[in-house]
Amino acid sequence: MLELCAVNYSSKKQCLIENICLSFASGKLYGLLGPNGSGKTTLLKVLAGLWPMTSGQIFWHGEELLKKERKEISRILSYVAQSNAPSFDFTVWQIVSMASYCHPGDFLKNKCEEQIEWALRTVDAWHLRNKKITQLSSGERQRVYIARALATGSPILLLDEPTNSLDIRHQLEIWELLKTLKNKLIIASTHDLRAAQHYCDDLVLIKEGQCVGVGVPQTIFEGSLINEVFSLKAKPF
Amino acid sequence: MNNSSLNNTVSPIFFYWILAISLFLSSVVTLVSGDMPWTAVWHGALDRMQGISTQWNPLLDERLPRLIVILCTGASLAVSGAVMQALFNNPLASPSVLGISCGGSLFVLILFVLEWHHDYPYAVPFAAFSGCLFVLLLIYFLSRKNGHVQLTNLILTGIAISTLLLAIQGAITYALRDHWQLIQTLTEWEAGSTADRSWRHVHMQLPLTLVGLLGCWLYRREIDILTLGEEEAKNLGVDVSRVRWRLFLCVSILTGGAIATVGIIAFFGLILPHLLRKLQGPSHLYLIPLCILGGSAVLTLMDVLLRFFAIHSFSLGNLSAILGGIFFIFLLMRTPASGESSSSSIPSR
Predict the structure, then answer these.
(1) Is the interface score ipTM higher than 0.85?
(2) Residue B16 to residues A222, B21, B348, Cα–Cα distance (Å)
(3) With contacts defined as CB-CB under 8 Å, which chain A residues touch B82?
(4) pLDDT tens, A32-58?
(5) Closest approach of B157 to chain A, Cα-based (Å)
(6) Per the domain annotation, does A236 fall within a domain?
(7) Number of domain units in chain B
(8) Contact B223, B83 (CB under 8 A)
(9) Residues B132-171: pLDDT tens digits?
(10) What is the pTM of this model?
């Protein structure tokens, strides 16, 4: 169980995340919905400990998450950014094998290569393993970074618009994959309302840095809340 | 690591051999070449080592310390360049391009002007190290915005600070233009010269080089990950601020040591890591040893060539600056106009 208690984040005197209190259960896929600039990416980065929250607490199984060592945090959660533009010509294999950094030395000897191969095959990127990351399309790169998050073996995955640059086939494959990762807690921000409705177990609605609704997709899409959040005049579908 | 990951690049063993052979040959030439006959030099050295003689010997008192200083300088500049390129997430960063060498040289210049180098010779590497670290931190904090080191800010900050520091240096040397001896010392030192280097210079530089290189080697995995940017590194478990501070210290120690003993060798720290990374790949597991070997080999070779062709009007620093400048312009011309990211281009971020 991942719990956020009164989490706030401010930058340049502007409150970007305001008093968010949420609970996320293991084994569920959560969709984080909200209009552009609502604070989805900020919330994910604060959750991942990449941006220091102004106040509040985050608990994982009752223990304060961000007070742990950085390597331990990375063993618990992995964050996949919306876009990445690497400057150096690492191969896909080298990029994914960086996932082993947060693990102790014996992991490198025993499980590392198996786990990397599994992760690359899972996201359909095994054939890219010898290619340079700078030569891949943004969609291919996104799959590689998802593979790296899987290779860490962390029980929490935080994905910032994971299907953003993917073609329709790979979008569906990624959603199907996320659905099959039953033992993980996955929080994925998305603008794809249809996919969120179809694949996510629960949805979290964010507007102007505040959590305005949590519930199963059916409840969220039946009411008028979704229209209010996205300022829609009619039902999205 | 899977061997297949290196299929795109040439085996590092090949480069190790090439560089090791070049290093060996150029080192031998450095040690044996000179005006005195080799047999006389060798016998004199043997006599000294057996305690039979106490006479000055060109091999032991001139060529050997000179060679060690060149090896240390080459390795230091190449490795510090590679590490800075990774830390700034930019394949065009290097101590001289960003003006860090200027910081070290200004502090050393002040030391020379105060004439402390006569009474406290070991204050020279300390001053160079302090100057490098000071400017490195200044550039880093001034070019950071929203948690990222922005390339345009980085280059502009580097240019602004190095221009400012050069102006201060120029003002100091202009004010002291009547002090002939001091001006001559400063000119020789600023040109990056390895002439008349003694064991005192080795004592100054060798410990700094060993500490700096060891530090960089110990953090090779973290350096790899830091090339992806700070957030990515943190996400993968790197304690970014702690590692970054330690690597800043290592870079300052290496650059400071080189500046203190040899002077400014511009662009060397940019070209070599860049070329080796192109040839062999970006993994610092291979790149750091290759930079140590390559930096030592290339600088020794340049020194041998300068002496072989008896080009007395050129110093190592001059030659490196001219070759490096041409290479830098070539790299900038190859940079895509769109700001598209690649290993040889300026990253778009």
Answers:
(1) yes
(2) 67, 8, 33
(3) none
(4) 999 999 999 999 999 999 999 999 999
(5) 20
(6) no
(7) 1
(8) yes
(9) 999 988 888 888 776 666 666 777 888 889 899 989 999 9
(10) 0.86
